[in-house]
Structure formats: structure tokens, C-alpha cells
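Appendix B, record 7
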Amino acid sequence: MFLHPNDIVVHGTCRGADVRAGHHARRMGHKIIEVAPDWVRKGRSAALIRNRQIVDMKPRMLIAFPGGKGTAHAKKLAVKAGIPVIEIVGKPDEPIDVKGLFGDE
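C-alpha cells (predicted):
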């Protein structure tokens, strides 16, 4: 288990692991904050700006699910900010089992 009972889960609304983790965390009683990229106003840089917004919230940790350039960017920002990064092993296109992350073991 990575999360404490009163932890707030912040995610970037990416379909797949972000959304699944958010739904599961909510079911386990965690408060959720969704930080969606503003594609209309920010264009192609929206996801990078969103990553910065999440890191600027100074989370206790960043749980990084398998991903691509956006995930790598978020991890780099977190490390630079001194935020521990927990990497979940797998491939970006494979389903991720999020059970156990939220105190439901």
C-alpha cells in the first residue's frame, strides 16, 4: 500500500491508468483532484503544463504508471522537485492492476 487513509489522489485525467486509479481511489474513500490539460487554450503544451501544475502542488509522492513522453516528463519534474517517484512496472498498452495502491490489500 502506497497511500495513507487521508491522502488525496491527484491525477492528470489520462485515460487508462490515471482514470482507473482515480475511480478506484474514490471507491476506497480517498478525495480526488483531477488536473486536466487545457488543450483548447494551451494547445500541444497542455499536458506538460498540467504536469507542472501537479508537481507544483507538492505531492508526497508521484506514482508513475507505464507511459510515454508525458510520463517521463512528469517523473523528471518530480525528481527535480525532490518528490519521490514510485514506478509501476508494465507496458503502456497493458492493463494495470491498481489494487493494493489504495489500502485495499
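Remarks on this record: The chain is about 35% helix and 15% strand. The helical segments are 17-27, 39-42, 46-56, 69-80.
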